[in-house]
Specification:
single chain; alpha+beta; four-stranded antiparallel beta sheet; two-stranded antiparallel ribbon; 6 strands; 16% helix; globular
Length: 82
């Protein structure tokens, strides 16, 4: 994940429901710090990575859940095929 912007970004992999719930938490607690294998936090002008092994085919979502970013459309998907 490359952050070419001027503010912190993150990439979180999850279901649409998980991402929406996490975005709600981030709005309530904007300074919340957290770390998990399915997420990467990337400071401005830096790079981060996630190593994730998908165990099934399907469509999976990811998003930046920094307050305001999710709402602005920082959402994407990964399609895993067998």
């Amino acid at each position: 994940v490359a952050n070419r912007g001027a503010v912190l970004h993150e990439l979180v992999i999850g279901t649409p429901m998980d991402l929406a719930e996490h975005a709600d938490l981030m709005r309530k607690f904007p300074g919340m710090q957290h770390e998990a294998p399915h997420m990467a936090h990337v400071n401005p002008n830096e790079r981060g990575d996630i190593v994730w092994q998908f165990t099934q085919a399907g469509e999976f979502q990811f998003a930046c859940l920094i307050p305001g970013h999710y709402e602005a459309g920082m959402i994407g998907k990964v399609e895993v095929v067998k």
